[in-house]
Design brief:
Elements: E1 33-46, E2 49-56, E3 59-65, H1 71-77, E4 85-94, E5 109-120, H2 137-142, H3 144-147, H4 151-173, E6 177-178, E7 195-198, E8 206-209, H5 213-222, E9 228-229
Parallel strand pairs: 3-5, 6-9
Antiparallel strand pairs: 1-2, 1-4, 2-3, 4-5, 7-8
C-alpha cells in the first residue's frame, strides 16, 4: 500500500472511509472521531493556526490544523489551495465563543484535525466559485464541472430532484405508470421522419425533433396503459 499522502489511487486510501458528510455534524457530536472528505472551499491562516472550510454537496464543515496539536498535519495543510480534494481525520470540538455561525447547521462545531490526505490537487481556477462573482454563460458551459459545484447550481438541481420525486409519488398514488417512451420503438426510415427545425438563436443551425409523440400515446393506449406519464 502506498504511504504517499498525495496518492489518490483507490488502493492508497486503505481503511479511510467517510464517516460523515460535511453538512451533518452538530454540537451533539462533540468528542467524536470523524473522517471527512470533500473540496477545500477556503483556507485561512490565523497566527499559525490554519482554518479550512471543507465542502461537499451536503454542506460545509470548518477544519482546524493547529501545529501544537499535530505538526505534520499542519504542515500538509499549509499547502492547501481552493478546490483541492482532501480527506481528514479528527475530533469534533465546539467552536470558541464568538466564532460560531448560526447560519450553518455545522456552525457550532469544528473538527480538530490530526491526519490529512490530499486526494487530488487543483490547478488555478478559471473563475471563482463564489456566488457573488458574475460569470458569463459561455465560460460556465465550458467549465460545466466547475459550474455545477457552485451552491446555486447544486441548490437548483436538488430542488428539481425533490419536485420530480413529489410529482412521481403523487402520480403513482393515482395509479399512473412512468414510461420513458423513446425506448418503446426505434427510429426507422418508414413512417414519420425526424423533423429538422431551424434554430432562432444560432442562425444556419438546426435541431432535430424525434418522431411524433402521438405515436407513443396511441401505442400505450392501445396496449392498455390508460394512465401514464414521463418527465422530460
Amino acid at each position: 500500500m502506498s504511504t504517499d499522502p498525495t496518492d489518490h489511487r483507490p488502493d492508497a486510501m486503505g481503511d479511510w472511509q467517510r464517516s460523515h458528510d460535511c453538512g451533518t455534524l452538530t454540537d451533539h457530536d462533540l468528542g467524536q472521531s470523524v473522517t471527512l472528505m470533500g473540496w477545500v472551499a477556503s483556507r485561512r491562516d490565523h497566527g499559525g493556526v490554519i482554518f479550512v472550510d471543507l465542502r461537499d454537496r451536503f454542506g460545509l464543515t470548518q477544519l482546524v490544523f493547529n501545529p501544537q496539536h499535530d505538526r505534520a498535519a499542519h504542515e500538509k495543510a499549509d499547502g492547501l489551495r481552493s478546490e483541492f480534494v482532501i480527506a481528514v481525520r479528527g475530533t469534533v470540538e465546539a467552536r470558541p465563543e464568538g466564532m460560531t455561525n448560526p447560519r450553518l447547521r455545522t456552525g457550532m462545531i469544528e473538527v480538530n484535525c490530526d491526519e490529512i490526505r490530499i486526494l487530488n490537487p487543483s490547478k488555478a481556477m478559471p473563475f471563482q466559485l463564489d456566488e457573488s462573482v458574475d460569470i458569463g454563460e459561455e465560460t460556465r458551459l465550458r467549465f460545466r464541472y466547475l459550474d455545477l459545484r457552485r451552491e446555486r447550481m447544486q441548490r437548483n438541481l436538488d430542488l428539481r430532484h425533490r419536485a420530480y420525486q413529489s410529482t412521481r409519488r403523487h402520480l403513482d398514488s393515482e395509479r399512473f405508470i412512468e414510461v420513458e417512451t423513446p425506448f418503446l420503438i426505434r427510429s426507422t426510415p418508414e413512417g414519420a421522419r425526424d423533423f429538422l427545425v431551424p434554430s432562432r438563436v444560432h442562425p444556419g443551425r438546426f435541431y432535430a425533433l424525434p418522431q411524433s409523440p402521438q405515436m407513443y400515446k396511441q401505442l400505450l393506449m392501445i396496449s392498455g396503459f390508460d394512465r401514464y406519464f414521463q418527465i422530460v
